[in-house]
Write a structure and sequence with these properties.
- This protein is an alpha/beta fold and about 325 residues long.
- The protein has a single domain, classed as TIM Barrel (Alpha-Beta Barrel).
- About 45% of the residues lie in helices and about 15% in strands.
- The chain contains 13 helices and eight strands.
- Strands 1-2-3-4-5-6-7-8 form an eight-stranded parallel sheet.
- Helix 5 links the parallel strand 3 and strand 4.
- It binds adenine (ADE) and zinc ion.
- Adenine binds next to loops.
C-alpha cells in the first residue's frame, strides 16, 4: 500500500542534504557557479561511496550563499515534508555552511530559515558541527548553538566523517551545549563499529545516536541501549544507498527494535539517496512486513525521543491520535 498519507515524524534530516539537485542547480546558475561535476547525466547527485558523498555534499553547499538562499531551501524542504505527510521534523543545520560560523551571520541565517513556513509541518533545528572540520570549528558551531538555543534550536549534534579524531576531542563543545540546555545527538556506528558508539556515549553523553546501526555487532551494547533508552536515528535507505548494508533485508533495524532498542526512521539526505519518508515506510513494509501498528509504534518512539518542548509534543500527539 502507499504510506504517503500516513502521518510521519522525522528526526534525522540534514537541511543541505535535503536540497533537490534541481534547486541547487538553479542557485548555482544564478551565481554563475559551475558545479556541474557533481551531477550525473540525469541531473542527480553523482558519487561513489561515503567520502565522495561528503565531497559532493560540500560542493553542493557552495551554491547556498545567503540567508535568502537558506530561506528558499527551508521552504522547499518543508514542501517536500508536507508532500510525504511528515508532520514533525528536526533538521540538522550547520553554522559551517551559514557564514562560516560567524555568530552575527548565523543569527541572520537562522532568522531567514525560520521565516519559511508550510501549514501542518512543525520544524525544529539541531545545530550540527562537522567532525572532519575539527574540534576548533566544532566549538565555534557550539557557540552559535548556545547563543541561539530556545524553542526552535532545540539540540546540538555532530555529523561528518566518523573516523576523524576521537569523540573526546569534541567533549568541550557538547558540554557547552548541554549546559545551555540543548539536547544532544551524534552520528556514530554508521561507518565505524560498535566501539565508536560506546565512545560517543561515554565522551559526549548524548541521548540519541545518529545511525548507530553497527551496535548490532555488540550484544552488550544492544543491551545497554535497550536498558538506558538511548534512541537510534536509523536511516535504512541511506545505509543501503551508501553500501553500509547490501539490502533492506540485511539491515539490522528490525532486529534492534525486536530486542527493545528505541528505533526511529528517517531519510538522512533524501535526494542523495533517492528516498523519501514515504519510500522508507514502503521499504520497511516490504522488507519486514511492517504495517499500521509498527508504524504507529515508530511514531510514538520518535515523538518520545524528540527534542522539542512538551507543548509541541502534545499538539503532535493529538494529530497522531486523530488517525
Ligand atoms: N552528513 C550528511 N549525511 C551524513 C551521513 N550519512 N553521515 C555523516 N555525515 C553526514
Ligand atoms: Zn546523517
Amino acid at each position: 500500500m502507499s504510506w504517503k498519507s500516513f502521518p510521519k515524524i522525522e528526526l534525522h534530516l540534514h537541511l543541505e542534504g535535503a536540497a533537490d539537485p534541481a534547486f541547487i542547480r538553479t542557485l548555482a546558475a544564478e551565481k554563475s557557479l559551475d558545479i556541474s561535476r557533481i551531477f550525473d547525466k540525469n541531473g542527480n547527485y553523482k558519487f561513489d561511496g561515503f567520502s565522495e558523498f561528503l565531497t559532493v555534499y560540500e560542493n553542493a553547499t557552495q551554491a547556498l550563499q545567503s540567508p535568502e538562499d537558506f530561506k528558499r531551501l527551508t521552504q522547499s524542504v518543508l514542501e517536500n515534508l508536507a508532500e510525504n505527510n511528515v508532520i514533525y521534523a528536526e533538521a540538522f543545520i550547520s553554522p559551517d555552511f551559514c557564514g562560516d560560523r560567524d555568530l552575527g551571520a548565523w543569527r541572520e541565517y537562522l532568522a531567514a530559515m525560520r521565516e519559511a513556513h508550510v501549514e501542518g509541518v512543525t520544524l525544529k533545528g539541531i545545530v550540527t558541527c562537522i567532525r572532519h572540520f575539527g574540534p576548533e570549528k566544532a566549538r565555534e558551531a557550539a557557540l552559535c548553538a548556545v547563543e541561539t538555543a530556545g524553542d526552535w534550536v532545540v539540540g546540538f549534534g555532530m555529523a561528518g566523517a566518523e573516523n576523524f579524531g576521537r569523540a573526546r576531542d569534541f567533549s568541550y563543545s557538547f558540554d557547552m551545549a548541554r549546559e545551555a540546555g540543548l539536547r544532544l545527538t551524534s552520528h556514530a556506528g554508521e561507518w565505524c563499529g560498535a566501539s565508536s558508539v560506546w565512545e560517543t556515549l561515554k565522551e559526549l553523553r548524548v541521548e540519541r545516536i545518529g545511525h548507530g546501526v553497527h551496535s548490532i555487532n555488540d550484544p552488550k551494547l544492544v543491551e545497554h541501549l535497550a536498558e538506558t533508552g538511548v534512541a537510534l536515528e536509523i536511516n535504512p535507505g541511506s545505509n543501503v544507498a551508501l553500501g553500509v548494508y547490501p539490502s533492506w533485508i540485511d539491515h539490522p533495524m528490525k532486529r534492534l527494535r525486536d530486542v527493545g532498542v528505541k528505533v526511529t526512521v528517517s531519510t538522512d539526505d533524501p535526494p542523495f539517496f533517492g528516498t523519501t519518508m514515504t519510500r522508507e515506510f514502503e521499504e520497511l513494509e516490504s522488507a519486514y512486513g511492517w504495517g499500521i501498528e509498527d508504524f504507529k509504534l515508530l511514531n510514538e518512539t520518535a515523538l518520545e525521543v524528540a527534542f522539542c518542548d512538551l507543548a509541541t509534543k502534545d499538539v503532535i500527539t493529538k494529530r497522531l491520535e486523530a488517525l
